[in-house]
Amino acid sequence: MAQLQLPIFPEGSTSINQNIAFVKQDNTITYIYGSLPVFSHDVDDMKTFRMFTSQLYVNGSASQVEICRAFGVSKIT
Fold first, then answer.
1. Total count of domains within the chain
2. Rounded to whole angstroms, how far apart are CA atoms 67 and 17?
């Protein structure tokens, strides 16, 4: 039987949901799934931010509401 992995987020991270968080360090945003960093991009890179958060939604990893709450954006932006 597979063992579940507990999410272990680093100090200073912001939780998107119980499995995904992000941390902003210097000019980089790094996304963490469980305890592993999975993607990072520059803070000012809006195209990459939209691409990755869209992937989170399309893949079922996060809902639109969770993404909107975590980043303080609206669904229409």
1. 1
2. 9
Amino acid at 26: D
Q: Report how far residue 28's alpha carbon sits from residue 41's, in angstroms, rounded to the nearest whole number.
A: 6
Helices 64-71 and 46-58: angle between axes, nearest 10 degrees: 150
Instruction: Return the SS3 of 30.
Output: strand
Which single residue is written with the structure tokens 């939209």? 50
Domain hosting 47: range is: 14-71
| pTM of the full structure | 0.84
Using CB atoms within 10 Å of the CB of residue 19, give its burial: 0 to 12 exposed, 13 to 18 middle, 19+ buried.
Answer: middle
Residue 43 lies in a domain: yes
Tokens of 64: 């639109």
The pairing of beta strand 20-25 with beta strand 14-15: antiparallel
Condensed to tens digits (0 to 9), the pLDDT of residues 36-54 reads: 999 999 999 999 999 999 9
